[in-house]
């Protein structure tokens, strides 16, 4: 049996209510279908529970339903010896009791995934959300999450000038200090001279505030201009 098949069986709607479980037990013991089902629902019910995979046993004078599928031998005979899987269907009012038993047997510090796996190995009808909520209430549990590392794909270029990358370098802390006077930010340390031959400048534009940096992804060549 695959885990997908097991999850499918574990989510049967009959496990949600006491009446639903009793209807399956009554069908296994007496071959009586639940009342109120149409023809399609009756066929579906027989397909799920009339395949020989279910048995009823009395525990403390109460009928209990088990998923106990057979493994046929060479003569295709079914015996108790070749029934390996045996999962008990838990009634809704017994969920917390069964969860407590599994938790006490597992010891402290068990993670959410492992705890649910241990429950699913013994019982049907207890969903993953219930095991998670139960474990969170115990105070001593471990949250586990499969971390998927994100790998960034490299940016490649097949020929020159196909792709460029550009960014700005802020030169404020390298070229001058800013001084706020009368609500206006003004440079106070003018230590970078303008380019030669440029006579159209004053004290407010004598400092380079930014530098443009461009890279060609193919050649890996970099240009930087203030």
What would your notes on this structure say?
29% of the residues lie in helices and 19% in strands. It has three domains: 1-89, no CATH class; 93-144; 164-195 and 202-225, no CATH class. The chain is α+β, with helices and mostly antiparallel strands. It is elongated, with a radius of gyration of 36 Å. Strand 8 (210-216) and strand 9 (221-225) form a beta hairpin. The protein has a four-stranded mixed β-sheet, covered by helices on one side. The chain has a three-stranded antiparallel β-sheet with strand order 5-8-9, with no helix packed on it. It has a two-stranded antiparallel ribbon with strand order 6-7. The longest helix has 13 residues, at 18-30. Helix 5 crosses helix 6.
Question: Which helices and strands, and how do they pair?
Answer:
Blueprint: H1 3-10, H2 18-30, H3 39-49, E1 54-59, E2 62-67, E3 87-89, H4 95-106, H5 112-120, E4 123-124, H6 128-136, E5 164-170, H7 172-175, E6 178-181, E7 184-187, E8 210-216, E9 221-225
Parallel strand pairs: 3-4
Antiparallel strand pairs: 1-2, 2-3, 5-8, 6-7, 8-9
Helix pairs in contact: 5-6
């Amino acid at each position: 049996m695959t885990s997908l098949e097991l999850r499918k069986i574990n989510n049967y709607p009959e496990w949600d209510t006491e009446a639903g479980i009793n209807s399956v037990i009554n069908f296994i013991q007496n071959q009586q279908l639940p009342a109120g089902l149409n023809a399609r629902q009756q066929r579906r019910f027989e397909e799920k529970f009339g395949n020989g995979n279910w048995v009823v046993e009395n525990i403390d004078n109460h009928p209990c339903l088990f998923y106990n599928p057979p493994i046929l031998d060479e003569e295709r005979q079914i015996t108790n010896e070749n029934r390996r899987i045996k999962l008990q269907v838990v009634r809704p009012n017994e969920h917390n009791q069964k969860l407590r038993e599994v938790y006490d047997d597992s010891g402290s510090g068990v993670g959410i995934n492992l705890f649910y796996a241990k429950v699913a190995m013994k019982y049907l009808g207890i969903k993953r959300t219930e095991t998670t909520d139960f474990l969170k209430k115990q105070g001593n549990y471990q949250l586990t999450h499969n971390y998927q590392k994100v790998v960034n794909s490299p940016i490649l270029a097949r020929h020159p000038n196909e792709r460029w990358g550009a960014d700005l370098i802020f030169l404020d802390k390298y070229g001058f200090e800013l001084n706020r006077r009368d609500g206006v930010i003004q440079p106070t340390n003018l230590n970078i001279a303008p380019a030669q031959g440029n006579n159209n400048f004053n004290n407010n534009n004598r400092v380079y505030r930014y530098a443009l940096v461009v890279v060609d992804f193919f050649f890996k060549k970099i240009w930087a201009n203030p």
